[in-house]
Design goal:
The protein contains two helices and eight strands; from the N terminus they run αββββββαββ. By secondary structure, the chain is of the alpha+beta class. The termini are far apart.
Length: 160
């Protein structure tokens, strides 16, 4: 009887714990992504242009980040941030994801001088219900079911 009760409690508690951990990871990505965006805006104010070089920004990213090919900053915990540009110049967005959801979720934060004007989106790919819940818990409202690229996707507007 005791084993049955413990089993029932575990069946309820483990999914709730996993959801809380996922939300904490997504919230961290959102906060750091906003920080990168804000640093890019300060750089723009001082120089009249954006940069794709993290080392030129006045931001202290968490320790453990390794610059990867191009304009990305990857962390051992699976976090990845990139400054997205059209071609080799003209950055217009900060993109962030964690390797746990790399194929299913992405956060994109538009730069103020781009057509996105600071809007933040959470993209839920591949009809993953967990990712759809994460986008909603970040305050997202579904605005589109087309996100470019391949596969099913819903775009959630977090703020505008």
């Amino acid at each position: 009887m005791v084993v049955l009760i413990i089993g029932i409690l575990a069946a309820i508690a483990v999914p709730q714990y996993t959801a809380a951990v996922d939300k904490a990871h997504a919230s961290r990505l959102l906060v750091l992504g906003k920080s990168v965006k804000d640093a890019l805006e300060r750089y723009y104010m001082a120089n009249g242009t954006y940069t794709q070089d993290f080392s030129l920004l006045d931001i202290q990213m968490p320790a453990g980040g390794v610059l990867s090919e191009g304009n990305g900053l990857r962390y051992d915990n699976g976090d990845f941030f990139s400054i997205v540009a059209a071609g080799s110049s003209n950055p217009w967005m900060v993109s962030a994801f964690n390797a746990r959801w790399e194929l299913d979720m992405r956060l994109n934060i538009g730069l103020d001088q781009s057509s996105w004007k600071g809007k933040m989106y959470c993209y839920a790919y591949n009809d993953n219900p967990k990712v759809h819940r994460l986008c909603k818990t970040l305050g997202g409202s579904p605005v589109s079911t087309t996100c470019g690229g391949s596969g099913a996707c819903t775009a959630y507007l977090i703020s505008n």
